[in-house]
Specification:
- It is a single chain.
- By secondary structure, this protein is mainly α.
- It folds into two domains: 49 residues, no CATH class; 122 residues, no CATH class.
- It is 76% helix and 0% strand.
- The chain is built from eight helices and no strands.
- Helix 4 packs antiparallel against helix 5 and helix 6 packs antiparallel against helix 7.
- It is flat.
- The N and C termini lie far apart (73 Å).
Amino acid sequence: MVAYPADHWSGGPEDRKALRLAEVAARETLSPVERLEIMLHPWVGLVIMPLFAFANAGVPISAADLRDPIATAVFFGLTLGKPVGVISFSWLAVRSGIALRPPSLDWGMVAGGGMLAGIGFTMALFIAGLAFGDDHLNAAKVGILSASVVSAVLGTALLAWLSSSRRVEGPSRTAGSTMRQIIDL
């Protein structure tokens, strides 16, 4: 038996053989198709599906559509109206006793979720198709798509900031506790 230094011990030959055997066993527990699925999932979820959805939306983007009042109304309805609605009705439900807010879910996180609710795609496009004629449909689609991008960015940024501040400051003082103080007034 070979002696290894105490501060640089990596086990004996039997231990290394057992580790190699465990590595092979772990690799073989997943089929090649499952490994391929795991490898491709981020690409499909974050690149291919959004491109497919965008291509199927059939939206010719033009600067004139961005200035259209319908696009502006749809944009503000999704980016401002949805978060205000989610936060307001969540607060009303908690305040009236209809719902309980888990202690780990502060109001800042509810606000972040409300911002993410502004992401509208399939149902918003469906309703726009029913509500508007061909002359205004493209403006509504541009409003939906731009609001979805802005809502996704703002909601993700808020949730990431709240999560990072929670890690730095600890659970005792988060941005949500400030929101809780405002709501309790």
